[in-house]
Amino acid sequence: MSIKSHPSVMSPRERGYFTPILWKPQPELERGDEHEWAMVRAWFAAARGGDFGELDDVLDAYVEQLRDPATRFFAANLLGDAGTDSQLERVEAFIDDAVFDPTSASELCRSLGLWGRLSAVRAILVAYDRWWPGQLVEGIPAYFVTMLEPAYGPAAEYPREETDEAFFAYEARLGAVYQDRLEALGGPHVYAMHGEVFGVRRLAERFLELLDRERYSMMMRPFMRQRFEASTGIDCSDFYRNSDSCALTIAARLEAWLEGPDAPRFVPGERYFFGHRIPRSP
């Protein structure tokens, strides 16, 4: 069984934040890592109740205590989806300084990509620049795409050749896209998704636009599912069946939500976790 399909992993193509082990102990799955699961369940319970200050310890625990790939994956996701600006600014600083911990630094780029604040592009690029080429950073261009582009473009055209020329050309293309988005959206403290200002209602609308069979749409659906589930606290487990997306189900659920009473309370340009607005930096 692969790690992605293991029942303790919150795969966005399967159970997401409604993976049972995140809600109550599952002794048969914890196998000596009970202390790690107790920590992540406590963080999750606090965050979904709106107590985001309890996530102050996540970064230190990620680096110093968490060893199970499943708890580390959950912690990185939770920090990105529910972390405050100040908590994620610490992640930016950690990546800047983490010369001797490339694994944690590259994995925590996921947190910054989920955060979506434009300032994070610089920190993610630090990790990519520092450890390219290599398996650790293979997935990093995806974060540039989900933040900066509405379709595959320059941010997705990462270097296939392991040459300095290829990397510097990519860095120049990415820098141009990034500068354009900074100017268009209003600066580095704006939360962005697909080149637009992030908003939960816009997220649902965008998700509906990506229910065709195009390759880009298929690749973006797990990301969109995770962001919508995290923001609203709605169980989206039925968006997938056997890891295949169910477009009709997704469309019906999103349309009902957009037409219902909850959607209007989500303010454009703000982040939410399980319906609670996440604090910004002062």
Question: How would you sum up this structure in a few lines?
Answer:
The chain is built from 12 helices and 6 strands. It has helices at residues 27-30, 34-48, 58-64, 69-82, 85-97, 102-115, 120-131, 141-148, 164-185, 200-209, 215-232, 247-259; strands spanning 192-193, 196-197, 240-241, 244-245, 272-273, 276-277. Helix 6 (102-115) runs parallel beside helix 8 (141-148).
Number of strands: 6
Strand content: under 5%
What's the number of helices? 12
Shape: globular
Rg for CA atoms = 18 Å
Name the structural class.
mainly alpha
User: How far is the N terminus from the C terminus?
Assistant: 45 Å
Biggest sheet, spatial arrangement of strands? 1-2
Mean pLDDT: 94
Helix content: 40-55%
Mind describing the biggest β-sheet? 2 strands, antiparallel
Low-confidence stretches: none
Q: What is the succession of H and E elements?
A: HHHHHHHHHEEHHEEHEE
